[in-house]
Amino acid sequence: MISNQSIILLLYLVTIVCFILALRFLSSPKRARHGNWVGGAGMIIAVATTLLIEGIGNWALIVVGGLIGSAVGVVGARRVKMTAMPQMVALFNGVGGGAAALVALAEWHNAVDPAAKHTVSIVLSALIGSISFAGSLVAFAKLQELVSGRPIVFPAQNVVDILVFLAAAGFGIAAIAGAQEQWVLVAVILLSLLFGVMFVLPIGGADMPVVISLLNAFTGVAASATGFVLNNTVLIVAGMLVGASGTLLTLLMAKAMNRSITNVVFGAFGQVQAGAGEGRTDDGRTVRATTPQDVAVQLSFARKVIVVPGYGMAVAQAQHDVRQLAEVLEERGVDVKYAIHPVAGRMPGHMNVLLAEANVPYTQLFEMDQINPEFPQTDVALVIGANDVTNPAARSDRSSPIYGMPILDVDKAASIVVLKRSMRPGFAGIDNELYLDPKTTMLFGDAKDSVLKLIAAVKDL
């Protein structure tokens, strides 16, 4: 057991340094793996140090809880498919918020005089942690398609949301002011859980990357507040690191869509507009279907091909086949690159994670600002399941809900091939003008099946 406070603080300092270095390494794909190892090492030091503090408590209960949690975490992490990683991130994030709320409730229950304790920290931990827990569960349900990925709204929903939040905050203020009854904090938690559910339900799938980042920041702040409750330095710092990084990522995601955070949260973005997905005959233009053989000819004789991955690739689990197609084309002397939109998929970096899992060299992955100037010199843009992030209406149609959102300039390529199951609109609930472009051809079908047919057709040439 460790009783020397200086040694404990020194070990916690090592942990904090590890966490900061981990975030620094994670900013680069080349060093991201090292970042995970360093962060993991820091967490091991933090947990071991905390458990060895003199008078820590019931070891048997701690070991049982640790074994159960570790078993669930290891099995879940090993079995989850890379395409389902957003769901796991949402679920694990929610668990962190829920844990913070439970610690707050336990400390409130055990306190002889709650008014003399860290009451503000307890209330904040309970309120923010509960919102993060409930909101993350709803995000998980939407990502897992247990509930509709479209915004679920009802009249005056924003007003009701505000009233529920104010009620939770009101009970919290009462607790801070001196109300010591157990039910006061329980009311804060229950109302916060309700607000968390109502907070995420009206947010559509297109905004899930922003929501996941925002909820992650909430969990970090809740954990930091819990650190004050437990007088634990490393928890305070680690929570604020998560809160700060999550906040910055949320702002970057919102900027990538050229929308404010309030618009993301209260805009109910993604409601299907009337007529969306119907037959396309605008201005006499029609959608042109193609075959794998015709696309194979275009790809094989191109000098430069840019692959634009989207959620359709993730659903079909086609990332390995996309990499194989790229390798086959590279053997023919074709220059292949990948264009990554910041909000493509269901979480920040979703496409990067999928392509890294398929061993696509990170040097071939290019962010939107880097790759957009290259589309005018590109022979073929191969769009795999990406919808809203390639829609030219974002540049030209002021009435479009995505107007002003930065997009990948695939329409500037000499030829565009879109792999898609059907003409259903994307998460924004609107038709994609790209599909009516005379340079665009549609290869309908499951992305994985279509890519496999393209590989076979290219090899047969």
Q: Which sequence of strands runs across the widest sheet?
A: 3-2-1-4-5-6
SS element count, helices: 17
Oligomer: single chain
Main sheet record: 6 strands, parallel
Order of helices and strands: HHHHHHHHHHHEHHEHEHEHEEH
Beta content: 5-15%
Question: Which geometry do the CA atoms define?
Answer: globular
Structural class: alpha/beta
Give start-end ranges of low-pLDDT stretches: 272-281
Present the secondary structure layout.
Elements: H1 5-26, H2 32-51, H3 59-79, H4 85-110, H5 119-143, H6 157-177, H7 182-200, H8 208-230, H9 233-256, H10 261-266, H11 292-300, E1 304-309, H12 311-316, H13 319-331, E2 335-340, H14 350-357, E3 365-367, H15 368-371, E4 380-384, H16 393-396, E5 415-420, E6 440-444, H17 447-460
Parallel strand pairs: 1-2, 1-4, 2-3, 4-5, 5-6
Helix pairs in contact: 1-2, 1-9, 4-5, 4-7, 4-8, 5-6, 5-7, 5-8, 6-7, 8-9, 11-17, 13-17
